[in-house]
Amino acid sequence: MKTEKISKLTVILGIILLVVSYTMPLSILGNILGEDNLKDIRGIAMAFIIPLIGIIGSVFSIYKKQWLFLILNILLIVSFFIYLILVFLVFRS
Questions:
Q1: Distance between the two ends of the chain, CA-based, in angstroms?
Q2: Cα(66)–Cα(10) distance, rounded to whole angstroms?
Q3: What does residue 74 show for φ and ψ, rounded to 5 degrees?
C-alpha cells in the first residue's frame, strides 16, 4: 500500500469507527454480550482505538507533508476530550 493513502484511510476509518460506536443501539447485541460489555466496547473505541488510529495517521501525514490530514488526525486524537466537553455543556444542569 502506498504511504500517501494511509493518512487518508486512517481519517476515514476513525470517523467510521466514531460514528458506528455511538450510533449502534445497545439492544442489538445486548442479549449476547450484555449491556455493560457493549458500553465498555464504546469506551475502549473512543478512548484508545480512535486516538491510536489518529497517531498512526499523523505520523504518515507528517512523513508525506499532508497538512490537512494531519489536522484531521489530530482531531481524531483529541476526539474523546471533545466529546466529553460537548456532553458536559449539553447535559449540565
A1: 50
A2: 13
A3: -65, -35
Give me the tens of pLDDT residue by residue for the chain, a chain 93 residues long. 677 788 889 999 999 988 888 777 655 555 566 656 556 677 777 888 899 999 999 999 999 999 999 999 999 999 988 888 988 899 886
Q: What residue type is assigned to position 78 of the chain?
A: V
Residue of 84, 21, 79 lying closest to 51 (CA atoms) = 79
Task: Report d(CA 63, CA 74) in Å as an integer.
Answer: 15
Please report how the helices 79-91 and 50-64 are oriented relative to each other, as an axis angle in degrees rounded to 10: 130
